[in-house]
Amino acid sequence: xxxxxxxxxxxxxxxxxxxxxxxxxxxxxxxxxxxxxxxxxxxxxxxxxxxxxxxxxxxxxxxxxxxxxxxxxxxxxxxxxxxxxxxxxxxxxxxxxxxxxxxxxxxxxxxxxxxxxxxxxxxxxxxxxxxxxxxxxxxxxxxxxxxxxxxxxxxxxxxxxxxxxxxxxxxxxxxxxxxxxxxxxxxxxxxxxxxxxxxxxxxxxx
Length: 206
Prior knowledge:
The chain is of the alpha/beta class and about 210 residues long. The protein is built from nine helices and seven strands. It has helices spanning about 25-40, 60-70, 80-85, 90-100, 115, 125-130, 145, 150-155, 190-200; strands spanning about 15-20, 45-50, 75-80, 105-110, 135, 160, 175-180. The longest helix has 13 residues, at about 25-40. The chain is globular and about 40 Å long. Residues about 190-200 and about 200-205 have low confidence and may be disordered.
């Protein structure tokens, strides 16, 4: 199996940025750049979902992957089809299969606050927190609801202050943090709506 960076991974801090990316947009890039800086990451690996069990995606994997590649144009970002290679659909299963293959590195799961609101709907969501530290980055309109989410309540005692997030490796799992940031308003939903406005004969979810 070919991974996006040749090993060894020892000493590297890598953010795993999973998502549907339907399509990827400048808000995703904003989140990845902030994670690079605030978490002192060496790399961000973008992991487009092979398929989202919570959504019926009309855009092909190839189109979503290509949009992520456009947004991840950065010397310390890579886009990988590792989920398709592994044959997994749930992030929990992807991490269980991936992490043993990249031993020695320090990995952090990256997600926007919009996903934290519904994180409890993910397969094995509470077990996922036992596999990897999680960094949640603020998104427009989701900050308050994210902090009131089922995940935030379940793991309230394991949350690190933002200024401690760079020290993830010194804390036992589960551990997570919420990173406030100047908000970026781009969203995949708005991009699909604009595409529909330009072509009214195209379905909004395509």
